[in-house]
Amino acid sequence: MLPAVVKLCCGISYPHLRSTAGLQRTAMAVIGQEIAHLQRWGQMQPRMRTHAGLNYNESKREDAPAKDDQLFYVQQGRGAMRKALSMLEDKDGWKVEIRESNGDVICSKVMPGARKVFRLEAVLEAGVDELYDLLFTRVEEMHQWNPSIQHIKVLKHVGPETIVTHEVSAETAGNLIGQRDFLSVRHSCKQKSCVYLGGAAIQLEAIPPQAGFVRAEDGPTCIVIQPLDGDTRKSHFTWLLNMDVKGWLPKSIVNQALPRAQLDFTRHLRRRLTASATLG
User: Fold this and answer.
1) CATH superfamily of 21-43+62-259+273-279
2) Where in this chain does the record put each START domain (predicted)?
3) What's the pTM?
4) Is pLDDT at 123 greater than 50 in this prediction?
């Protein structure tokens, strides 16, 4: 869901992949396939943008959806969160992908359909409320501290716990995956001292796939934030990343890129938290 959740995550560079000539050739072939795919469907058009991002049709935005729509979005968000949490709670089949010196660990698991999901575990120097504020309440500001994101726009506010967002990944040097856009429903839930952020891809007629982009789909996915051993100044951060980047990309590249994207996101988040602490 998040940041990108989520997102949260396709503005990814690959310095660790570019070291081998074989993977360089694979990368060039992938880029060629992506361009050919976009040209075939007439998507290589000039992109209409405003200073805030893409040129949305304001007449079709629904900041206050009808009651029936509200119920639909809330159900979609809650359902995605339940599915994502059930994936986390199933302890079988997880394998360590990356173990960082700072204690961050990423594990992976192959789900039915052969898609890999990734679980990041980290400790952050911030309280639960601060992280909730950054990752949900102020999600539209995420591009200010995460260079992998071009922008996130909240299209619908469905009560205090559910939103619908459109996200565009940034165009960065060395990004083999290429820019993607995401249309997602995001749901939040607070239980005792813990915060749960979940979500999944959704479709809206008012926001069709954008010219020049591949629309990726995330979810069901979630983030769990809880105080670390009663210390309200630190949080245990668990992020289940479950994403279909679409397009013409080999699974081998995608499965190396996504966990690296999680580490990049966490690094940028830590810098943002450090900056806040310094200013405070």
Assistant:
1) START domain (3.30.530.20)
2) 90-278
3) 0.78
4) yes
